[in-house]
Structures are given as structure tokens and as C-alpha cells.
Amino acid sequence: MTSRDDDALSWAGDDDPTLVSAPTRDSGLASRPSDAAAPPTHPSEPAPAQDLESAGDPGTADAGRPAMSSAALVSFGVLGGIYLLYTVGWIVGGLRLNDIAGFIVAPTASVPAIIVAILAPAVWFGVTFLLTRGRATWLRFVWLVAGAVLLVPWPFAMLGTGL
Fold first, then answer.
1. Nearest C-alpha neighbor of 78 from the set 134, 139, 125, 118
2. 80 vs 145: CA distance, rounded Å
3. Percentage of the chain surpassing pLDDT 90?
4. CA nearest 142: which of 124, 154, 157, 117?
5. Could you tell me which of 90, 94, 100, 99 has the C-alpha nearest to residue 152?
6. Which of 49, 97, 129, 156 has the smallest number of CB atoms closer than 10 Å to its CB?
7. What whole-number distance in Å separates Cα of residue 160 and Cα of residue 163?
8. Is the pTM of this model over 0.85?
9. Given this model, what pLDDT does residue 74 score?
10. Where are the alpha helices (DSSP H) in the chain?
11. Rounded Cα gap, residues 147 and 163, in angstroms
12. What's the chain's average pLDDT?
């Protein structure tokens, strides 16, 4: 019977006889008697693979641009979620405001305005990504945060859902 500490440091199946650990690079080279005696089992240099993007159009390859960090990707996801919630907020607030707006403005003016307000967060998010594609990441964040401040669904924030 092993102790709890030993159980924590082992994995079920570690003592399996078919499990063979790979030799390290130094020990594998030292254990061979001769490289010329053994035929190579794999090619020495694999052919470089092409990306699908670079194969289609060589002018649009992103080889010179570094990849975004994980924090940037998560932040973009959070901001995308905020914009999605803003779209839902404009739908709910716009439908709620549609009853009240009939007393102030003609429906031929209020309905298109509400439709534009519903589409505004998605359009801002898409245009920001399109126009800041080759720019610095911080600039994209600035425009997305500015849009998040400007596009708050005020009818939903002020009137709520009416429940």
C-alpha cells in the first residue's frame, strides 16, 4: 500500500510495461553505435507546409505581424459580448420605447431610428475591426471602449424591461 503522497505523484497506468518513455536527444545519439549502419526511419528535413491564407493570395499574408496575446483575445471577446448585450438592450429598449415614441414622433421616423440604433453596436464592432486591422492593438481597444461608452442602450437603461 502506498502513502497518499506517493499516490498524488503517480498516474494510473505508470507501471504499464507497454509504456516506454522516449529517450532524450543526447542519450539517443550516444546510444547508437553508428548512424551509417542504421537506415533512417524518417526524412531528416520535412518540407515546409504552406498556410491556406498564404497559398491563396500572397499579398494578404500576415507573416510580418506578431500574433495577439491571450489577454488581448480574451478582452476582445469580452468587448464583443458587451456589444452583443448592447444589441439585445437596444432591441428590448427600442420595442419598449416604440409605444412611447408614437406620442412624440411619427412612426415613419421612429421605426427606422430604432432599427439603426439596434444595428449600431454590431456595425461599430465590425467597422472597428476592419479599419484597425493593420494598426496597433491598443488603438483597437480605444475605439472599442469608446463605442462601448457611446452606444449604451439608454432606453433599456432608463425604462428597463417594464416587468
1. 125
2. 11
3. 29
4. 124
5. 90
6. 49
7. 8
8. no
9. 93
10. 4-8, 25-31, 52-56, 70-104, 107-131, 137-150, 154-159
11. 28
12. 77
- Joined grid coordinates for residue 49: 507546409
Q: In the predicted model, is pLDDT for residue 149 greater than 70?
A: yes
- Residue recorded with cell 424591461: 161
Domain-wise residue ranges, the chain: 70-159
For residue 58, the SS3 value is helix
Residue 20 phi, psi dihedral angles, 5° rounding: -120, 125
What does the alpha-carbon distance between residue 111 and residue 94 come to, in Å, rounded to a whole number?
9
Q: Rounded to 5 degrees, what are φ and ψ at 32? A: -75, 135
Residue 59's contacts (CB-CB under 8 Å, 6 or more residues apart) are none
Which residue in 67, 126, 118 sits closest to 91, CA to CA?
A: 118
- What does the DSSP 8-state code read for residue 86? H
Place of cell 408614437: 102
Eight-state DSSP code of residue 50: P
